[in-house]
Write a structure and sequence with these properties.
2 domains; mainly alpha; 170 residues; two-stranded parallel sheet; elongated
Amino acid sequence: MRTNDLGEIVLDDNDICDLLMQGKSLGDFKQLMVDPTVPVDNIEKLSSDPISFVAPSPDNISVDQYDRECQEKWFMPEEYYDLDIAEYILSLCTTQEELQRCGKELLLYQEKDLFGLLAYLKYLVDTMKANDIIWGVGRGSSVSSYVLYKLGVHKIDSMYYDLNPEDFLR
């Protein structure tokens, strides 16, 4: 097993054999990042579960390109990809002031191309609620985002405390 320059864990055929020898089911992994030299046909024969193999990122990709590509591949159900996150957040607003604040922030999120992140955060919060997982009250500059408050990511009402959303979304 090796970690490439982008922090991806890349398995070779010995690593996969080790997993199998440890009694792990390859189907437990959503995807396996496998060295391109490994003959995946042979590995697929070893597992009764369907396996998705992913090639590591090319060596010549920059960290910025890698980050952008990762941000486009959120692992969440399709319904969250299809969700109009801006419309959903605006539907949570009960006053004109909340609508104006969320609208202003959503423009900042859109400008930074972060709607995919907001959809993922909705999925994360829904998953934590469904599984009775407790998460923190909020920390750092993220608490200045009223949109994140409406999504339930944190519990700090930034409008009440008159926090500037641009402290978070610079």
